[in-house]
Amino acid sequence: MSKTRRMARGGCGVSWTLDQGTDAQHDAETPHGTPPPATHRLEGMSVDLESLYTDLHTHPELSFQETRTAGVIARHLAGLGLEVEEGVGRTGVVTRIDNGPGPVVWLRADMDGLPVEEQTGLAYASTARGTDPAGNAVPVMHACGHDMHVTALIGALERLVATTAEWSGTVVAVFQPAEEYGAGSQAMIADGVLDRYPRPDIVLGQHVTPLPAGTIGVRPGTQMAASDGLTVVLHGRGGHGSRPHSTIDPVVMAAATVMRLQTVVSREVDPRDVAVVTVGSIHAGLKNNIIPAEAKLELSLRYPDDAARARVMSKVERIIRAEAEASGAEQTPTITTDHTLPPTINDPDATSRLTAAFRRAFGEGSVVDPGMFTGSEDVSWFARESGVPLVFWFWGGVDPQTFADAVAGGTVERDIPTNHSPFFAPVMQPTIDRGVENLVVAAREFLD
Asked: What pLDDT, on a 0 to 100 scale, did the predictor assign at position 43?
């Protein structure tokens, strides 16, 4: 996609007030059929954030296919009088606010959806379809909240534009594609985003999660795990289903491999450590009376640091090769690393400073330590490649009473949908407004 640069002029002239509203969700409903409460609503915004959010939620796009999303973002940014660059790292969008001397703060939001069929029952639920990299037609949903991330960052930029008299420095806003592939940040870096824009002094980002709305989850050190995606091809010898003795059956080989891989964490990782080995996909054969020549497994491996990665990876590879040998395979399995994501590590000093700022803004009880999350992110590449601190936090999107009831009943895992669930649906308010406020507080903390 070719890059375009847009320049628009205009004053924002907005004010920042809170009002006790009750109509924030409009006619949309939760999966349980009742409108979620809206505890407050930011007024005076030229951008209708709720309409923006519902539009993005209704029209998700897969990784590196976020062309409509990028266009929506670019139009809103141009409406704020900002210069916009599109097509960064294929479909990314970048803008900046230059406001005199001072620190350079990068704010990042991801844009892509997932191949998930939405089952939330929302009035604005997605019915979108897309084409995955293998050419398959798939449903598409914002099942990880990236629509919320984009909405919050656009709202924060409007607020920062409107209050330039109160701060100095530079804000660079990065709307990143393909986080779900673990490739978007590196694509933008390869496209020269770190060279064309002022290098950051700090990188900031956030992710909506199934915490109670109004809660921020942040911790120093490892916030999210490192991960690798592996594709494994087990090579057998195909033949007729009536003559299994003349074949080397990759289906049986795959079944044995999957079962043995479950012992990596349960028997080979110290119970005090954290690791995840998941076989998320297994494919072999086309017909019941044909033993195929190969089977394919797709694995997700997760760990807190590089040392744990080396240990787990060696055990996984050992088991895959040993099971193939035990099955009499004549060819060594093919193991391909599809992507590697580093751990998301929050700078201790910057995290301490930002935690204090959040508590001043929202109250002592508003910030919790969520523990290390075994999900993974690619935001840290921006900070790693720049050699600067990163702070990445979670913010809640669950109605607080719903969450409290689930905790009291011991049904959190059952009743509170998590990211990537077809039922994942953050309450619109106060989640949007708090997402905006989080970014404004964070940016202002590190600007002059």
From this structure: 63
- State the pLDDT at residue 42: 61
Q: How far is CA 207 from CA 22, 184, 194, 373, 419, in A?
A: 25, 16, 22, 12, 10
Token pair in block for residue 290 = 């044909």
CATH of domain 4-223+343-446: 3.40.630.10
What are residue 314's phi and psi, to 5 degrees?
A: -65, -35
pLDDT at 197: 99
The mean predicted confidence, pLDDT, of the chain is 91
Closest listed residue to residue 77, CA positions, set 10, 133, 146: 10
* Sheet hosting strand 226-235, strand order edge to edge: 276-284, 294-303, 226-235, 334-341
40, 429 Cβ separation under 8 angstroms: yes
d(CA 223, CA 369): 9
State the helix-helix crossing angle for 348-362 and 431-446, rounded to 10 degrees: 130
Q: Where are the domains of the chain?
A: 4-223+343-446, 226-341
Q: Report residues of the chain scoring pLDDT below 50.
A: 1-41
Q: Quickly list DSSP for 197-246.
A: SPPPSEEEEEEEEEEETT-EE--SEEEE-EEEEEEEEEE-B-EETT-GGG
Name every residue whose Cβ is closer than 8 Å to that of residue 94 and which is 6 or more positions away in sequence: 84, 85, 88, 172, 173, 174, 175, 188, 193, 197
Return d(Cα 57, Cα 147) in angstroms, integer.
6
Taking a C-beta distance cutoff of 8 angstroms, is the pair 151, 49 a contact? yes
Beta carbons within 8 Å of 164's beta carbon, 6+ residues apart: 97, 99
Cis peptide before 430 (omega within 30 of 0): yes
* 321 CB burial (10 A radius; 0-12, 13-18, 19+): middle
pLDDT tens column, 204-251: 999 999 999 999 999 999 999 999 999 999 999 999 999 999 999 999
Distance CA 103, CA 115 (A): 39
Domain 226-341: give its CATH code. Answer: 3.30.70.360
Active site members: 112, 179
pLDDT of 45 reads 75
In three state form, how does the secondary structure of 280-339 look? EEEEECCCCCEECCEEEEEEEEEECCHHHHHHHHHHHHHHHHHHHHHCCCCCCCEEEEEE
Please provide residue 379's backbone torsions phi and psi, each rounded to the nearest 5 degrees: -60, -30
Helical axes 146-162 vs 67-79, angle rounded to 10°: 20
pLDDT of 44 reads: 65
| C-alpha separations of 396 from 147, 265, 385, 399 in Å | 14, 30, 29, 9
Strand 104-110 relative to strand 294-303, pairing: unpaired
